[in-house]
Amino acid sequence: MSLKRVVITGIGVVSPFGNGVPALMKGIEEGRSAVQFMEGWDQYNGLQSLVAAPVEMQGEMRIPRQKRRSMGRMSIFAAQAADEALGDAGITLADENLWRVGCVIGSTMGSAKSINDVFETMLPDRDLSKLNSTMFFQCMSHTATVNVAQYLGLTGTVMAASAACASALHAIGAGYDMIRLGRQDILLCGGAEELHPTVTGSFDILFATSTKYNDNPQKTPRPFDRDRDGLVCGEGSGILVLEEYERAVKRNAKIYAEITGFSTTASGVHVSQSNKESMITCIQQALGDSGVTASDVDYINAHATATIQGDQEEAEAIREIFGADVPVSCLKGYIGHTLGAAGSIELAATLKMMETGIIYPTLNLENVSEDCEGIQHVMHPLKKPIKTILKNGFAFGGINAALVCRKI
Amino acid sequence: MTEQEVIDKTNKVFEESFEIEKERLVPEANIFVDLGLDSLDIVDLIVALQSSFGVKIRNEEKVRDIRTLQDLYQFISSIKNDDGVKNG
Asked: Which of A15, A87, A300, B68 is the most buried (most CB within 10 A)?
């Protein structure tokens, strides 16, 4: 059985810069930071990191009430991003065999705010009678994918990927395999996540968040930088339309890139720490899957959350495979770490960079940290034709993911 | 609580929780057919009414017979009056 080819024909994003891919790219082009001081977060006893990159939700009332009632913030982001992606792809669902159209959307968890609201409503009296029906649907871990499916009327594969910061890449990888095997023709793939003090709190407890820039929020996170001090949470959603190549060509679709390789590995050692060896294996497998070598890669979009250990491990892994031959940048300085959505929002921006031939720099990288040296850091916009890219994603559980895409 | 207060408070739940315009909230409106509520909405309607009126109605048998807004107004009035009687 020969495998089908898979291409990306549409992208949609809700990011801390606003709704839509143009808003995201404008923020990046202008070198802006969407990170801000979060009012009211200091009410959480012990929360050290008081900065984040929130989305200003807009247009949600356009979603009909009975579709919207089961959506927490992150599902609204996902539905809006999915709408944009489908429009971008020029796909009209009414014209499709919907048994062959589905979605694979990942997230770390269900809607954080809704989960918080459930417990605040129920406790301390353990009173279930005040909980309404739709809160469960907002809280369940596959909330984003289910809500997008019911919003759009998709009846193909509806699946969720749950791998924390690698969720979106896992979703894209799973979608890639499904289309390759001929199980589906079109899959909306990506991730979604929403912000809440408790989400930042979970990283805060582990000393993984940025705490030194509360009075200067736009100076953090600082991926690969000497003065980096941890991650900054963001929120949003990125959805990509993955489509079987022959039918995309037949309908004259715009093709951003072909997905040519995907790999995911794990460290098998620690629930939170990254591990260079497993990252290296992951990247090498994705390259091998893709039939390319390190020298074929034109740009690496790094994961780089600005944690001390994570950035160091990733830089070492990149250095070992690519040396300083391939430009590397990371977008988290602009929009924070959007967690379950990171892989897809950042991949969407990378595809736009491929389109324009401009690699945007790592914001807040002012002095490369000694432990991140030896790779080609992009610190100013770089004009370069980009044919093949590598997108990295690394997550709690020591989970690694790597995706290779090529312009065709 | 007067009849009009029951009507106003009930209608407020429909406007706020279900985004239904005031003009559609007429006594003869069928909650399902005319106002478009479904089974999930009914669960939430009960929760919202319990919160708004400070009563427990979820386990009342008569809840299942409610079809129109008028039915609902009468049901809530009778629950509130029963409460009033219980509390002397």
From this structure: A15
pLDDT for B85 beyond 70: no
In the residue annotation, A170 being an active-site residue is answered as no
B41 has a pLDDT exceeding 70: yes
List chain A residues with pLDDT less than 50.
none
- The CATH code of the domain that includes A321 is 3.40.47.10
Q: What are the structure tokens assigned to A73, written together?
A: 């913030």
- Confirm whether B68 is domain-assigned: yes
Alpha-carbon distance A70 to nearest alpha carbon in chain B (angstroms) = 10
Query: In this structure, are residues A371 and A225 in contact, taking their beta carbons and an 8 Å threshold?
Result: no
Assembly ipTM = 0.87
Last residue of a domain, one of A250, A272, A298: A250
Is A66 in CB contact (< 8 Å) with chain B?
yes
Phi-psi region of A72 (alpha: psi -120 to 50; beta: other; left: phi over 0): beta
Which pLDDT belongs to residue B88?
46
Q: Which domain holds residue A291?
A: 260-406
Same domain for A110 and A225, yes or no, is yes
* Residue A234: per-residue pLDDT: 98
Q: Are residues A57 and A179 in the same domain?
A: yes
Residue B34 falls within a domain, yes or no? Answer: yes
Q: Which of A142, A337, A372, A377 is catalytic?
A: A337
Range of the domain at B62: 3-75
For residue A388, the cross-strand partners are: A406
Clarify whether A165 is annotated catalytic.
yes
Separation in Å, CA A295 to CA A222, A318, B47: 28, 12, 62
State residue A271's pLDDT score.
74
Whether A126 contacts chain B with CB within 8 A: no
Task: State both tokens at B82.
Answer: 């029963």
**Residue A172 sits in the same domain as residue A274:** no
Rounded to a whole number, what is the distance in Å from the CA of B49 to chain A's nearest CA? Answer: 10
Q: Which two tokens stand for residue A5?
A: 């080819």
